[in-house]
C-alpha cells in the first residue's frame, strides 16, 4: 500500500539524484541555469525530508510517548503549515536570487556554454521530473495530502523549468556559427531569468494558506457548517444559544462548541450528555485522528466566551 511517507521517500531520493546530477552538469558546463536548478532541487529535497518527518509525527501522534508527548500534548498539526510556509518562502527566495544573478550576468555580456552537456542534462531531468509528477499526483488522488500536493506541484515546476532549459540549449546549439551566434552568450542567463520569473509567484498560494493556518483564521465554509449544526441542536433541544470556535491547522480541524442551556433544566445522567455529544459529532462529520472536537454545556455564558 502506498502511503504519504513512502511516496515522500521516493520523491526525496529522486530529487536528490536530480540535484546532484544538475550541480555536476552545471559545474562541468559552467551553466548558471543548471546550477540554479540543482540548488533549487536540493532545497526542495531538504524541505521534503523535513515534511516527511513532520508527516510521520502527525500520523503517529497517538503512539508518541515520553517527553515529546508531554511537550506536544495537543498534537503536531501546527508544524505542518509552518513547514509548508517555510518551503514556499525558500523556493521563492531561491528564484529571486537566481533572477538577480541572471540579470547581472546579462549586463556583463553573458557566457559561452558547451550546449551539448546542457541538452543531455535537460533531457534526463525532464524525463525524471515528468515521471515523478505523474507518480506523486496519481498517488495523491487517493491519499489527498497537502504535502504530496505541494510535492507534485514542485515536480511540475521542475519539469517546466528543465523543459525551458532544453529548448534554450537546443536553440543555442542550433544558432552557433550563424548570423545569430552573437546571442549564444545570453542564452543561459536569459532562460534563467525567464524561469525565475515563472517560478517566483507559484508558491504564493501555499504560503498564503500556511499563514492563514498559522494565524488560526477560521475557514468560512467550516465555520458556516459548524454554526448550522450547532443552531439545529440549540433549536431541537431547547438550548438558549451556542458559541463556536473553529480553526484549520494543516490537516487538523479544531472545533470547540459551547452550548448555553437554560438554568433549572432537569438533571440528566452523564451518559445522556455523552450521547448528545456523539450525535453532534456525527452531524459535524470528519471523525478521525485529524479532528479535535470539544463540546461543553453550561448555564453561564461567561464560560463560553
Task: Describe what you observe in this structure.
The protein has 2 domains: 4-214, Alpha-lytic protease prodomain-like; 220-304, Alpha-Beta Plaits (2-Layer Sandwich), CATH 3.30.70.1350. The chain has 10 helices and 3 strands. The model has no long low-confidence stretch (mean pLDDT 85). Helix 10 (270-284) links the parallel strand 2 and strand 3. It has 305 residues and is mostly helical. 68% of the residues lie in helices and 9% in strands. It is elongated and about 95 Å long. The chain has helices at residues 4-29, 32-59, 67-71, 79-107, 115-143, 146-174, 184-199, 204-214, 220-237, 270-284, and strands at residues 241-249, 252-260, 291-298. Helix 6 (146-174) runs antiparallel to helix 7. The protein has a 3-stranded mixed β-sheet with strand order 1-2-3.
In terms of topology, how is this protein built?
Layout: H1 4-29, H2 32-59, H3 67-71, H4 79-107, H5 115-143, H6 146-174, H7 184-199, H8 204-214, H9 220-237, E1 241-249, E2 252-260, H10 270-284, E3 291-298
Parallel strand pairs: 2-3
Antiparallel strand pairs: 1-2
Helix pairs in contact: 1-2, 1-5, 2-4, 2-6, 4-7, 4-8, 5-6, 6-7
Number of strands: 3
Look at the helices and sheets and give the structural class: mainly alpha
Question: What is CATH's topology name of the largest domain?
Answer: Alpha-lytic protease prodomain-like
Helical amount among residues, as a percent range?
55-70%
Distance between the termini: 45 Å
Task: Write down the secondary-structure element order.
Answer: HHHHHHHHHEEHE
Shape: elongated
Q: Tell me the count of domains.
A: 2
Q: What's the overall average pLDDT, rounded?
A: 85
CATH architecture of the largest domain: Up-down Bundle
Give the helix tally.
10
- Provide the gyration radius in Å: 26 Å
CATH superfamily of the largest domain: Cation efflux protein transmembrane domain
Amino acid at each position: 500500500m502506498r502511503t504519504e511517507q513512502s511516496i515522500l521517500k521516493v520523491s526525496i531520493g529522486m530529487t536528490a539524484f536530480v540535484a546532484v546530477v544538475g550541480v555536476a552538469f552545471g559545474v562541468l558546463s559552467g551553466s548558471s541555469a543548471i546550477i540554479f536548478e540543482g540548488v533549487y532541487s536540493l532545497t526542495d529535497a531538504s524541505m521534503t525530508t523535513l515534511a516527511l518527518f513532520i508527516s510521520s509525527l502527525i500520523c503517529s501522534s497517538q503512539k508518541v510517548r515520553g517527553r515529546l508527548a508531554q511537550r506536544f500534548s495537543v498534537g503536531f498539526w501546527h508544524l505542518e503549515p509552518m513547514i509548508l510556509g517555510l518551503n514556499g518562502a525558500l523556493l521563492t527566495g531561491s528564484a529571486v536570487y537566481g533572477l538577480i544573478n541572471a540579470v547581472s550576468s546579462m549586463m556583463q555580456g553573458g557566457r559561452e556554454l558547451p550546449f551539448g552537456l546542457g541538452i543531455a542534462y535537460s533531457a534526463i531531468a525532464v524525463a525524471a521530473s515528468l515521471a515523478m509528477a505523474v507518480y506523486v499526483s496519481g498517488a495523491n488522488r487517493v491519499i489527498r495530502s497537502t504535502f504530496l500536493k505541494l510535492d507534485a506541484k514542485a515536480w511540475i515546476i521542475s519539469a517546466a523549468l528543465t523543459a525551458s532549459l532544453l529548448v534554450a540549449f537546443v536553440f543555442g546549439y542550433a544558432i552557433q556559427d550563424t548570423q545569430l551566434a552573437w546571442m549564444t552568450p545570453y542564452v543561459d542567463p536569459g532562460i534563467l531569468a525567464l524561469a525565475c520569473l515563472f517560478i517566483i509567484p507559484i508558491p504564493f498560494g501555499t504560503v498564503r494558506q500556511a499563514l492563514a493556518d498559522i494565524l488560526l483564521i477560521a475557514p468560512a465554509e467550516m465555520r458556516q457548517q459548524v454554526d448550522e449544526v450547532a443552531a439545529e441542536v440549540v433549536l431541537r433541544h431547547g438550548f438558549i444559544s451556542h458559541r463556536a470556535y473553529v480553526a484549520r491547522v494543516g490537516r487538523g480541524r479544531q472545533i470547540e462548541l459551547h452550548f448555553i442551556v437554560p438554568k433549572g433544566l432537569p438533571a440528566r445522567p452523564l451518559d445522556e450528555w455523552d450521547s448528545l455529544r456523539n450525535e453532534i459529532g456525527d452531524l459535524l462529520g470528519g471523525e478521525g485522528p485529524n479532528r479535535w472536537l470539544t463540546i461543553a454545556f453550561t448555564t453561564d455564558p461567561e464560560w463560553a466566551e
